[in-house]
Design a protein that fits this description.
Blueprint lengths: L1 E2 L1 H10 L6 E5 L12 E2 L9 E2 L3 E4 L9 E9 L13 E5 L11 E4 L3 E3 L5 E3 L9 E2 L10 E3 L7 H9 L4 E5 L3 E7 L3 E2 L10 E2 L2 H11 L3 E8 L3 H11 L4 E5 L10 H7 L3 E4 L1 E2 L1 E2 L5 E5 L2 E6 L3 H19 L9 E6 L10 E11 L2 E6 L8 H4 L4 E5 L11 E6 L1 H5 L4
Parallel strand pairs: 1-20, 6-7, 14-17, 14-18, 15-16, 18-23, 21-25, 24-26
Antiparallel strand pairs: 2-13, 3-12, 4-11, 5-7, 5-8, 6-10, 9-10, 19-22, 22-23, 24-28, 25-26, 25-27, 27-28
The structure holds adenosine monophosphate and magnesium ion.
Length: about 400
């Protein structure tokens, strides 16, 4: 059955479940999604504190600046001030240190001058409440500081630490089994002879999976031999997700679909109206989700971006499943044959006050070197024919867009 991209995505995602929550240490939650909300175990700030280095004093005493004040103590961050600041007095205070009783403002150190007799001269007046962080002004004890469903980036790790959450529940990332198929494939450290080629997909897909925070289990290469293929796939079925590359089309040695059926998997579709990547198989076996990806490296990576990444994100509890798409002006004309929605390797960048996208020259779905120069995929709608320069097109941003500068 051949599905449009949109229908294939909808059918696929409908059959994928979010995985269960697990508890992890702070160091293990980056890139995951919170399965519980986190509340503040304290006010923040937890006490009135100085926002700057300077002198805590009473604003009334410095209305007529310069004014000379007695320095009664020095309050470092981490110390509790034992004394109260009275009329005509000041306490030297460091950023983050608690405001002493009696003081109602903090003058910047730069606006003061110490005197040889131990007193301090306040050079400028200031109002009450300056340079003070009041208790609870940022967050109140019991407030939700991180909602369930929140993606954990470094700032969220900081928030967890701030409120003493050393362990937290996140949705488990999938265990993903990777299998390359093909009699022609040899390992990366082998010298191909005759018509052999090196296995590319296990490596590219393996790191793509790991970069998402999922676990990659490499099952290596299976020959185009029904028995070997069946045993390798069978051993993969305990994973959450199985990515098989090669053997997905209709050639005599394309055994993946038949083998999946023999093993009791349900094949939901075996072709998608997408270019590249038409021979894509999607199957399930119990709760295990299986993709048969086309063997050409650009095809398998494109299908990874369009179909597999959203599946992994759904398993991980993400609400937004897709990488962002943006609209950009096409930098040069692009021929297109109507019939399949195309994803063309492209370079997108800002130019003037907009975005411009340039399709990169490519020899097609085997041309991984061309693809490796791209930071995005230019989406050409199914029915479109030639696109003229300057028209607005949709562009799928890949991680490379955020990671890389200009070539
Ligand atoms: P297939 O989908 O098995 O018909 O393979 C399509 C093309 O992709 C063929 O040229 C294969 O040699 C190539 N191919 C298949 N698997 C891989 C792989 N793991 N790494 C690199 N190329 C592959
Ligand atoms: Mg093959």
């Amino acid at each position: 059955m051949m599905l449009d991209v949109e229908n294939a995505l909808a059918l696929t995602l409908a059959l994928v479940q979010r995985l269960e929550p697990i508890e992890v240490a702070l160091s293990g939650c980056l890139g995951k999604v919170l399965a519980e909300e986190v509340r503040a175990d304290t006010d923040m700030p937890a006490f009135h504190r100085a926002r700057v280095d300077g002198y805590a004093l009473r604003a009334m005493d410095v209305q007529k600046a310069p004014a000379v004040l007695e320095v009664i103590e020095e309050i470092p961050a981490g110390g509790m001030p034992p004394r109260s600041v009275g009329r005509g007095q000041a306490a030297k205070i460091m950023t983050g240190a608690p405001l002493p009783e009696g003081a109602d403002t903090v003058q910047w150190l730069e606006k003061t001058r110490p005197r040889s007799d131990g007193k301090v001269e306040i050079l400028e007046p200031l109002g009450p409440g300056e340079n003070i962080g009041y208790r609870g002004e940022e967050v109140k004890h019991g407030d939700v500081v991180l909602p369930a469903g929140q993606y954990v980036a470094p700032a969220q790790v900081g928030v967890l630490a701030m409120f003493g959450t050393a362990r937290v529940k996140v949705y488990r990332a999938p265990r993903i089994a990777l299998l390359s198929t093909g009699d022609e494939l040899v390992e990366v450290d082998q010298q191909p002879t005759g018509a052999q080629i090196r296995d590319t997909n296990t490596h590219a897909l393996g790191v793509a999976v790991k970069a998402m925070g999922a676990e990659a289990i490499s099952l290596g290469i299976a020959r185009d031999n029904p028995v070997e293929l069946r045993e390798k796939i069978r051993s993969a079925l305990s994973a959450d997700l199985v990515l098989i590359s090669g053997g997905a089309s209709v050639g005599e040695y394309d055994l993946v679909k038949g083998t999946l059926r023999e093993l009791g998997a349900v094949v939901h579709y075996d072709r998608v109206a997408i270019k590249p990547g038409k021979p894509t198989i999607f199957a399930t076996h119990g709760s295990t989700v299986i993709f048969g990806l086309p063997g050409n490296p650009v095809s398998s990576l494109t299908i990874f971006e369009v179909l597999v990444r959203p599946v992994i994100r759904k398993m991980m509890g993400f609400q937004r499943l897709h990488n962002p798409t943006v609209r950009a002006a096409l930098g040069q004309p692009l021929p297109h044959k109507p019939g399949r929605q195309s994803y063309h390797p492209a370079w997108i960048e800002s130019q003037g006050d907009g975005l411009i996208v340039t399709p990169l020259p490519s020899r097609g779905s085997s041309d991984l070197v061309a693809y490796s120069k791209s930071n995005s995929l230019l989406i050409v709608p199914k029915e479109a024919s030639r696109l003229e320069a300057g028209v607005t097109v949709e562009v799928l941003l890949r991680d490379e867009f955020f990671q890389r500068g200009h070539p």
